[in-house]
Amino acid sequence: FEWDEACSTIQALAASDNDPERIRSMFQVLSRLCEESRAIHGLDEYEDIQSNLPLNDVVLTTVLEAWRAYMRKAYLKAEKDGDTQQLAMAEFDPRTVLRLVEDSMNVGLARKHPKFYNMILSTLSASKNHDESLEFAKEIFAKMMESPLRRSSINAYTVQLMVNICVDGGELETAEMYVEELARMYNIQSQRRDLQPNPPMYCALMEGYCDQFPGDVAFDRILELFQEMQRNCYIPSSPKATAMCFSRVANALAECRDHTDSKTAARAVVAEMFETFRKSHGLNSAYEMLHALSAPRSGIDVSKGTVADHQFLVLDYLSSAKKDNTESKAESVRAISGKLFGSILVNWRDHVRDVFSSAKSTELPCEPFEEDLQPQPLESYLGNLNPKSISQRIEAYEDSEIVQPNSATQNIVLSALKAACDKSGLDFGHDIYYRMLTRSNFDPLDRKHHPTITTVQEMVQLCTSCGGEDSAIKADQYLQQLKGWFEKTKQPSFSPSVGVFCSVIEAYGQSSQPEALDRIAKLFSEMKATCDPGTVNAITYTRVCRAVAQCDHPRSPDVARGLLDELCRRYEANRSKKRGYLLKPNKQIHAAVVGSYLKAERTEDAGSLSKDLDEFAERRNDPKLALDEELKMWIPQAHQRRSSDIAESILTTKPGTLRPEDWAVATGFIASLSRHDSKALKTAQGGKIRQAFSILDRFADDAMKIKGAKAAFPYLSLDQKAFSDTLRLWKELLVPTDSTEKEMADLDPTSVIERIFHYFDAGLIDSTANYVNIVLGAVQFTEPPERAPYCGHGFFERMLEHSNYKPTITNKHPTKITVQALLDLWLGSALPEAPGRAESYVDELVRWHEETKLDVYRPDPRIYCSVMEVHGACSPPEIAFQRVHQIFQDMKSMCPNEEIDTITCTRVCGCLAESKHPDSGDAARRLLDEMLDSYFNEGNLRRKPGQAAFSAVLKAYGRSGQADKAQELVKEMERLAEDTGDSSFAPTQVHLSALIWAFAGSGDVEKAQSTMLRMQKDFGSEVEMDAWEGLLVAWSESRDPRSIDKMLEMIDWLQTSVDSKQDPKAITSSTYNTLMSAYGRQGTVESAEEAEKLFKWMSEQNDVGNKPDKDTYKSLVIAWANAGKPARAESVLRVLCDKIIRGELDATLLQPHLFNTVIASWANAKQPDAALRAASVFKLIRQMNQRPAVVAYNSLLWALARDTNQDPASPVDQVFQQMLKEWKRSGDFVKPNSRTYNAVLHALSLSKQPEALDLAERYVEQMKAINVEPDAYVYTTLMNVYSKKQKPDRVEQIFHEMIHRFKAGEKKMQPTSHTYSARTWAWSIGNNPEKATSVVNEWIAAANDGFVDRKPLSREFGAVLQAWLRSGRPDAAEQAESVLEELMKSSSGHPNSLPHVASFTGVISAYAKAGSQKAGTKALRLFKTQKKLAETYPGIDSLQPNLLTYSGVIMALLKSRDPAVEDQVAGLLEELALKEGSFWRKFRSSELLEKLRTAVNASTLLSKTALVNSCQKLESLAATTRA
Description:
Layout: H1 3-14, H2 20-40, H3 58-81, H4 94-106, H5 114-125, H6 130-146, H7 156-168, H8 172-188, H9 199-212, H10 215-232, H11 239-254, H12 262-280, H13 286-294, H14 304-328, H15 338-361, H16 379-382, H17 387-400, H18 407-417, H19 423-439, H20 453-466, H21 471-489, H22 498-510, H23 516-530, H24 538-550, H25 556-574, H26 587-599, H27 603-619, H28 629-651, H29 660-673, H30 678-682, H31 686-708, H32 720-733, H33 749-762, H34 769-778, H35 788-802, H36 816-829, H37 834-852, H38 861-874, H39 877-894, H40 902-915, H41 920-938, H42 947-959, H43 963-980, H44 989-1002, H45 1005-1019, H46 1025-1038, H47 1043-1059, H48 1069-1082, H49 1085-1099, H50 1110-1122, H51 1126-1141, H52 1152-1164, H53 1170-1183, H54 1190-1201, H55 1209-1226, H56 1234-1246, H57 1252-1265, H58 1272-1284, H59 1288-1303, H60 1313-1325, H61 1329-1344, H62 1354-1367, H63 1372-1386, H64 1397-1410, H65 1415-1432, H66 1443-1454, H67 1461-1473, H68 1477-1480, H69 1485-1497, H70 1504-1522
C-alpha cells in the first residue's frame, strides 16, 4: 500500500469540488490508511501509541476541513428546505466521523490534539437540530475531559464552541458552567494562554440571554457578563475582532425586549468601542467598526434601525474626532470609502421604508419631519434617524472630510422620502434639492454637490408619490431645469432620460389638471425626439398608457389605443432586429388600454380590441400577443353588468305581461353569453346562466298560456347556436370546483332536460336532438359513474318518446351522436352489464339505419371502437377478447375501408390490450402487421402506424405476460427506423416505459432495471415518471426480499428532483401507493405496520399531490388483510366511513373494492366470529349508500360457508336468495357467477342436511339455466359434496364428464390437483383402497405429463394409507407400507410432500396388530427408515417418531420370535429414557407406558424383569415431566 499515493489522493480530493462523492472517497482512503497503520503496528485492538510513521496531522486535518465545509453547506440547504433533522446526511454523521478520528489517533496516524475534536464541534454548531447536536457535543466534551494527556485536553476554543452549541440548544446555565470551568482551569494551570476565556464566548452568552429571556432579566445579565468579560478577557489584538466583540455586545443590549434603557446602554457600548479603538488601534481603523456593525455575526435578529443608529453614532464620533485632530494638528483621520458609506445609507433608507410601511398598516399619521409639530407619533420610531437629521449629518460629515462629498448620498435621502407619501416629505425634499444647488453655487459642473439626473428623477418620483394639486407642475418644473442644465453644459449626463420623462408623465396622469392629456402627449413626443430610440421600449409605452388611462378625459381610451397600435407597428417592423424583443407588447399595456375602455363603458370597443389582438397574435404566430384569459374575462364581466339590469327587469315583470319587445331583449341577453370565451366566464358567470334559464322559464310559462288561449303566438324561436352555446357553458360550469359545485347544484342534467322539453312544447326553441346530446355529456359531472349511464338511458327513452319512436323524425330522435354519449357513460361505469347495454345500442342503430338508410344512424368506427372499449374495461378476458375480435369484423363489413384508419386500428389494439387475454398480444401484433403491410406495400398513408399503435401493442404484450415479445417489437421498431430513415418508427420514452411495464407484469425485475438504465442513458434526467412508476411496480410485485429497499432508494433519488425543483411532480401519491402495495405483498404484520406509518405520513402532508387517495386506502386495507389481520383492515375502512359521514373526506375515496377486500379477509380468517364480522361489513355497504357488487356477495357467501359454528347451508342459502332477488331487480351488476355457486356448493359439502345432494344438483342446473357455465372449480366442489356423502361412483361420473368436455375444447373444464384430491378422498371415505391407490397413481402420471400442477401431497397419500389400514385385510400393513414408500419416492422435500409421523405410526401399529413372526422386523425396519428421514430433514417436527411410534415398534417386536428382540427392545427403551420433557407432554404417556409395561411383563423374554424396571423408570420420568 502506497502511503504517499494515499496522502496525495486526499490532497487532490480536497482541491476538487465539494460534493458528497469527494467526501466519501476521502473517508475511504483515510479508513484504508488506518487499517494499514494498524497492520504495521500489529495491533488487534485500538491502543495509544506514539506515531512513528512519516505522517503528520495534515492528512486528518485535510479530511476534516473538507467534511466540515461540506456539512455546513448541507446544513444550510437543509434549513432552507425545512429539514431540520438532516436525515439525508446520515452517511456523514458526526458520530461516524468521530469514530474515524479516534481510530486515526489511536493507530498513530495523527497526534492526539483537541483541534480534531474542535472541528467536529464546529460542525455541530452549524446544525439546526440543536437538541441532538447538544447531546453529542456533551459526549465529546466529556471524552476530552477524561483524557489523561495534556495535549488532548480542552482549550478555550473548545469551550467557545460548547457555549455556542449550548446557547443554540437553550441551555444557558450549562454554557455558563463551561465558562466557569474554563476560568478555573485557567487559574489552576498557571494561566495558560490557550485556556483564557475569550470575548466570543461571553458575547454568545449575552446574545442567548437577549433572545431567550425577558427584557429586564436579559438587560441586567448582559451588563454583568460585559463587566465579567472586561475583567477576565484580553483585548483582541485585531481591530476586526475588537469591533466584532463590542458590536455584538451593543446589539445584544439594543435588542433587549421592552427595556427602556437598552438603546442608551447600547450607545454607551458603542462609545466605549470608539474610545478603545482610539487608544488601541487608531481611528484610521474605524472602518472595521462600521463593517462589524453592518454585518453582525450573532444569534439574534438585529434590526436595521439598531444597525443604522450605531453606525451613525460612530460616524458622529469620527466627525468630531476629525475636527479635534485638525484643530490640535494631531494624527489625521482618512475618509471612509464611498462604497461603505453608501451601504450605510442604503441600510438606513430600508429602515425608514420599513417604519413607514408599518405605520401605514397601523394607520398612524406620517409626518415625522417637522420638529415643531409635537407630538409626532413616528418620532419614537425614527428619533434622530429621521431624514432631516440624516441629511444634516451628511453635510457635517462632508464638511469634516470623513466622507467625500457626493450628490449620490443626498439622492438616497430623497429616495427614503418617497416612503412618506406626504406633502411634508415633498417640501423637505425640495429643501434638500435647494441646499444641493446652494452648496454647488448653482454650478452644474460641480459634480460633488450639484443635483444630477438621478436627483431630478428622485424629485419627480417624490412629486408623483406624494401627490397634490400642483405635484405634476412641480415635476414638470424639475424636468425643465434638467433640460436647462443640459443646454448650458452639453453634458450627456444631464440629458433627460426616458425614466424622467415617464415619471413626469405619470405625475400628470395622477393629477386633475384639465390639460393633463395634452401635456402627456407633448411630453411623449418630446421624449421620442430627444431620447435614444432604443430606450423607448414596451415598458415606456406601458407607463405612458397607464398615465393616459388614469386621466379622466373622454379621449383617454382613444389615445391609449393609439399608443398600443403604435407599439404594435414598431414591434412588427423591428421584431427581427437586435433587441427588437424589447418592443413586444405585454400584458400590462393590454390591461391599461382595456381598463381605459371599460372605465369609459365602451365594452364594444374593448371587444374589438380583443379580436384585433387575436388576429395580430395569429398573424405573428405568437399567442402572447393576444389578451390573456384574465383580461378577456374583464370584458364580458363589464358587459354583463350592463345586461344584468335588463335581465332583472324581465324577471320582476308580472306573469302574463311580457311583450314581444321583452323577448327581443331576452334573446339578446342570452346571445351575449356566447359572444365571449366561456373560460373567461366560468369563474364569474354561473349566476348569469341561472338568470338565462329563469328568463326562459318565464317566457315558456307565458307562451303555454297563450297557446292554451289559442291566441297568435308572439315569439320567434331562439337562435339554435345561442342556446347551444348557453348549454355548453352550463356544461363547463358543472365540472366540479370549489366555486361552482354548490352554485349549479339546482341546475342538474335532469332538471335541464325537463326545461328543454318544456321549451320545445312552448315553441321557444326548435326541436333538435343536439340539445339533449349536450346534456348527456354533462351527466358524468353530476352523477356517480355507476348511476350515470342509467340516468343517460332515461334521457334516451325520453327522446324516443318525444319522436314517437319514429327514426325518420331525425330532429327529435336519438342519433349516433346520442349513442356515442351513452357509450362513453357506460365505459366510465365499469359495470358488468355495460357490454350488453353497449351492444344493444349498436343493434338499435343498425336497425334504424336499415329502416331509414340515413347516415345519421349508420354506426361509424368510433361507435364500434367505443363498444370494444366497453368490453375491454368491463368483460372477463375470454369474453372481451372474443367480442373485440367479432365486433372488429362487424365494423369491417359495415364501414367503408377508408374510414378504418390508423386511429381506429390503434383503438382496437388498445381494446385488445385492455382485455388482458393471453392471446391479446399476438392479436394486436397481427393487426399492427396488417397496418405496416398496407402502408409499405399499398402506400396507404391512412394506415401508417403511429407511435400510439406500437405503444398499444406493447401494452397488449405486457398485459398478456409476453414481455419477451414486447422486447422483440422494440427491436423491430429500431430496425424499421434504421431501414426506412423514418424517425417516427424509433422507440420513444413511451414505448420503453411500456416495455418496463411488460417486464413488471412478467416479474422480470432485472430486465426492467436494464431498460431503465437504457432510458437514463438516452434521455438523461428527463425520464418520464411513467417509467419510474413501472420500475417501482416491478419491484413491488417481484416479492424479492430486496424490493422494499430498492423502492426506497428510487424514491430517495426521485426526491432529489423534487427538492431541486427539476421535476416538482416526480413523486406523487401514486409513488407512495406503489410502495404501500409492496408492503402489503410482504404479508407480515411488520410490513402492514410500515404501510400504516406511510399512510399517516401522507395524511400529514400539505401537498395535495401526496395526500392519500382511493388507491392509498386500498393498499392499506390489502396490507392488513394479507397480514392476516382482518380486524385492522376493517378498522381502516370504518375510520374512512366515519370521516366521510362527518364531511372531513370526499366520498369518492370510498371504493367498492375496500368492502370486498375486508369481507374476503374475514372469509379467509379462522376466527369464531369471522362470519358475523363479514356480515357486519356487508351491511356497512348499504349504510354508506352503495350497492353490493357480486364480489361482495361472493366474499360473504364464502365467509358463511366456512363458519364452523353452525350448519352453513341455511345462512348461505338465505344470502344467495337475497342475491338472486337483487339481480332480478337491479340487473347484471349482481348476477351470480361460478365463484358464487362454488361457495354455495362448498357450504352443502359441509352440511349435514339430508337434502344437500339434491340441492347441489339443483344449483348446478340453475347455473346452466342462467348462462353461467360451471368450470372445473365448481365441478370439483360438487365432487366434494358427493365425496363426503360417500358417493364415490357419482364422483367418478362427474370426473369423466369433466374429461370429456375438456377434450371437446372447453379449457376451463381441465381437472386440477384439487379434482384428483376429491376423487382420492371419495374412494378413501368409501373404503375402497384399491380405487384410491389407482387414483393416486393416475394423479402422479398426470403430474409427470404436466397435465396438473402438482403431485399428491402427504394428506392425499395419508387418505389412501388410512383406507388400507381400515380395510382389515391380512396384507393391509404391507399395502399401506407400499403407499408410504411411493409417497417418499415422489416427495419434493417440502413439508407438505413428506410423510407424517402418523403415517409411519399407523403402518407400524398395523404390523403390531398382525402378530406375524416377521411383523417386528418389518416394523423396526420402517421405524429406522423414519428416523433416517427425520435426520435428513431435521427442522420438520412432523417427521420425528413420537411415543406412539416407539410403543408400536416395541409391541410388534414382543410378538416376534427373533432372538435379537431383547436387545432391540432394550435399545428402544434406552432411547426413550434420553427424551426431553416436551416429548412426554404430547400424549397420555402414563397410559401408554403402563400398557407397554404390561405387554413386556407378559412376554417370554429372559430379561423381562430388567425391561419392566426400565418401563417403570420411564413412567416416573413421564410423571415428573408432566408435573
